[in-house]
Amino acid sequence: MKILTIPSWYPTEDNKISGVFFKEQVEALKENGVEGIILYIHFISLKQLFTTKLKVGFTSSIENGIKVYRYNTFNIFPKMYGLFFKYYSYLINKYFNIVSQKEGKFDLVHIHSAIYGAIAYNMSNINTPYIVTEHSTAFSMNEINDSVKKYLYGAFNNAEEVIVVGKGLLNDISKYRDKDSLKLIPNMLTLSEQYVEKDKNKTKFRFFSLGMLYNKKGMDVLIEAFNKNKDVFTDAELYIGGDGEEREKLEALINKYDLKDKILILGSLSREEVAFNMSNCDVFALASRFETFGIVFLEAIAFGKPIIGTKTGGPDTIVNDVCGKIVEVDDVDGLAEAMLNVYKDISKYDPKQIKDYCKNNFSKDVVANKIIDVYRSVIKNQG
Questions:
Q1: Where does the Glycosyl transferase family domain lie (predicted)?
Q2: Model-level pTM?
Q3: For the chain, where are the E strands, in sequence order?
Q4: CA atoms of 146 and 157, how far apart (whole Å)
Q5: What are phi and psi of 63, to 5 degrees?
Q6: With CB atoms counted within 10 Å of each terminal CB, which end of the chain scores lower, N or C?
Q7: What are the beta bridge partners of residue 38?
């Protein structure tokens, strides 16, 4: 089967990690027999007019064995959603036809996120059927402009199937499409087995957290919860990976509780540094206020580590009794109790059992085959 993927965001020279999960999914699907091609319409903010490395225009390239077609353009209609969607749908129509002439007929179009790719595709009047996988935290964070909401009904309901990556999105998207028609397929983990050097300086029980230091990641809650247990955590420490606008606030909180010798903010980490910290921690904990999925939890359980997350609709798609605990959002006492329980009962978490749970439910082959089943069903129904 031949599938055209249209991501609403995707890696660029300016941002090489944006939409990297979409890229890795297409690569995993190729490994499982799907011919995947990507068409990405990238809108550059006018604020980046003199700073962007990107050139306006249409290009094609082979990236990790995948044919990628790109059209870069400036967003000349910021916040003018009606005009923006007309322009976007015109571009999708134009470049869909160009790509189809080069590559042949597509069986199906797979769009990642209704905002804004599926909206524009739905308006383009292209006859090739499409499905949507929704990832965006904008739904749970109530960040969708009222002018955009009216377009979402058509984008979701005219799709042959709608996939969501977390339990929370089932409820969020049910405002636009019948919940019983939605499919839950989690994000996949593409990390492979790797040897990671042991931290020779580690002498304490270590909690590790990772995320941009923004309010929505709840690092302040994690610090507050650790402080609740500081009299018990005499041989415990908390490492926090990431950087962002809340760093000074978090450092002030650490100083307030006199925890400088127990809590360390590591700053931004490379993939190798993330692997090192995942491998050498005892527990991974993240107290997000919003999280549609949470790939970092998968990275942790891939290393056999127990995890602690919040009921945001994402982590509770992953966490169960085998691999950790889940608590309410902003519940400092509940998080403190969960951290204490895992600290005291760490021996009950079997690293091999946790790794097997990860492999059997979130490995790229398992998830890819679930997506392929959706493709086959839609294509069969189309005759």
A1: 197-346
A2: 0.89
A3: 2-7, 35-44, 57-63, 66-74, 108-112, 130-134, 161-164, 182-184, 205-210, 236-241, 263-267, 283-285, 307-310, 324-327
A4: 18
A5: -125, 115
A6: C
A7: 5, 68
